[in-house]
Fold this protein.
Amino acid sequence: MKHTTTTATGGNTQAAWTRGVRPKGRRKALLYRVAELLESYSMMAPAYMVFLVFIFIPVVWAFYLSLFDYSILSLKHPEFAGLANFAKMFGDSVFRVSVWNTVRYSLGTVPARLVLGLALALLLDQKNLFGKNFLRTVYFLPVVTSMVAASIVWSLVFNASEAGLANQMLKALGFAPKGWLADSKLAMLSVCIMSIWKELGYVMTIFLAGLQGIPLELYEAAAIDGVTGWQKIRFITIPLLRPTTFFILVCEVIGSFQVFTPTYVMTGGGPGYSTTTLINLLYTKGFFEFDMGYASALAVALFLGLLLLSWVMRRVFRAEEIVY
Amino acid sequence: MNRGNDRHSRGLILEIVKYAVLILGAFAMAVPFIWMVSTSLIPDSVIISYQLIPTRVTLANYVKAWNFSRNFDESVSLGTFFLNSLIVSVCITGPALIIDSLAGYVLARRRIPGKDLLFYLALGTMMIPFYVIAIPLYLVVRRLGWLDSYQGMIAPFLASGFGIFMFKQFFQTIPQDLEDAARVDGCSAYRTYASIMLPLAKPVTATMAIFKAMWSWNLFFWPLLIVNNIRLKTLPLALTMFRGLNVTQWGMLCAGMTLATLPIVIVYLSMQNMFQKGITMGSLKG
């Protein structure tokens, strides 16, 4: 039926079959086109079936659920609650603390990763650097390890006892041991340090890729004009890395607002609520208290918040670009 | 002359500082690993003060860590969790590559109504954080009866907007003539895809494979939600059982973490370039 009936006569085949000339007769051409469409759609079907069942339906359902009072533990049906879940959210002091903690985590990790990642990339980008590949490998190693394993090891590093690595270092430097993860003032800092360590190699690698994209001629031209090392970085490298920096910034900010594993594994959100992030709260509400309606409202709020945040970042970056 | 010398020595100092910073940094990155391995080699009874290089070495912790889960279920060892992780990541990576590339091929090459819409839908999936849909997704999977099952862990990740996007981008770079020739010869779209397009896409497929395999190997939140049965737990999930040990048995805990980390580190070291390509792939074209 389909393609086997055709005998092409060379020449401009592309034009020939896009005009649907190949099968003789109108009916045949139509049938051919339908068969072709069916074939195309059948190739896409698996992907879009997965999307439909596991993404599109859940997204709509999340918005829907956020308007209901729904606990999967009780037998009663979901009850329409309007915006009550959202109202509850703003009255919930744990929610406010978790937003603040999430912001603290974001501020504690993103700028440090960007600055250190860029510095490392600049240092490691030099051509005749001895042991370059070895160093890159070491810096990248934490990225490939599992976040759970890393978090567990770091919970020993930041153990409150004297045997913890962090406390041993303090001792060696002549300071008193600290509580780290057991201290509500230091717990978030400890999580941030671990998290910077874990993802630094990733940021570095993306920056390195961005550096590869800067044409060498620019540096050569600058060298002729007598531009020195630091000026080169300040006036050529950093401005030209703008798209890379923006990409990393957006990814990192959005990622940091969804932090869950390190806080879940290292502190369980504690001590008190000192490291409870938005997703920690969502997890507790949804899967311990089974308050699915409220948890969905949290999810929707997170989604809208992230959309707003990326929109703002885009605006700010654009606005700044005009300055250059 | 004098100035030249000055500049020379300043350059030298700068060079030394640069190396010192890099090496110190690398050491700081490596210390947790070194400490983990050395702690895993020290008998738990003598752990009072830790050294980076242990004096008395034992492998007993590794045996204990391997069999730790038998406390909960006699038939389950660390090997079970490795196997589960392997099953999940292979069953996600393999099919997902085919599903993504098929859709990517159609979006890149075939004339169909609604193509733009379908493409934007695929891109749109990338903008939805997983945590946002986690609750309804849990309800969907529960309704399918897939809680505590492999298919529950695998099915939601069998297609990704990112994968479709990458394959589409790549297929668009392949000359149209090649495909036309095949079609003139009477190849169906499936044949063209399988015997012409896919073989040409080997580099992207390989990078994508590494990316997906690593991603699914480290999957944590989703299995945490739907898997309770210890026999089905994947490695990251099982590792959380070790958390309780941080009071007493650091040696065994570290041995467990070393065992869990070692395979991926070995794979990474043997395929370094692929890993870094897989990581940067999203940023370059995105």
